[in-house]
Amino acid sequence: PWIPPAPQPVAPSPVAPAKVVAQAQGMGLTADVSAGLRAGATSIAGGIDYSIASMMPDTSIRLSGSYITGDTVKAVSLGVGAKYALTMLKSSDMPVDLYVGGSVLMPVKVSGGQTGKWGAEAFVGGAYAVPDLGTLFAEVGYAGLKYSSTKAALKGISASVGYNYAF
Fold it and tell me: Would the CA dihedral through 129, 130, 131, 132 be positive or negative?
C-alpha cells in the first residue's frame, strides 16, 4: 500500500504592524498654546482642534483665540478654521508631521474703543511628537486683521511656536 508523506509544518504568516493614529485613543481633541507673530504683531494664542477624520480624512476643525499687540493696537480675536495633515509626505526618515490650514478671524476686543471688523490667516506647519510629553509645533504663514473702519488692516507674516496635547 502507498503511504502519503507527512505534511510539512506551515510557518505562521507575518502579522502586519498596527497603524498608529495620533488621536485614536482619545476623543480627537487637541489643545494648544503658542507665541510669536500674527499679522506682523506680537501674539499669544491658544486653541482647540477637533479631528473630523471620520468624515474627511486628515482634517480637523480649529477654534482659536489670540491676544495681539502692536505699535498702534492691542486686540483680542477669535478664529474658526481648518487644518489638513499632509500625510502623503510622511516618511520614517522625517519625524515631523506637516500640515496646512487657514482661519477666519474676528476681532472681539480692540484698544481705543475701536470696533472689530474681520481677519484671515493661512499657514503651513510642522509638529514633532515628544514621547510622554506632547507635541511641539511651528507654523509660518500670512495674516490680515481689519480692526477699525478708519485705519489700515494689520497685514504681515505669521510665525509661531507652541505646544499641544491630545486628549
Answer: negative
Q: Could you tell me if 122 and 141 are in contact, meaning their C-beta atoms sit under 8 angstroms apart?
A: yes
C-alpha 54/C-alpha 40 separation (Å) is: 36
Per-residue pLDDT of the chain (167 residues; tens, 9 = 90+): 778 888 888 777 666 554 444 434 457 899 999 999 998 899 999 999 999 999 999 999 999 999 999 888 899 999 999 999 999 988 888 889 999 999 999 998 888 877 778 999 999 999 999 988 889 999 999 999 988 888 888 899 999 999 999 88
Residue 102 near residue 84 (C-beta atoms within 8 A): no
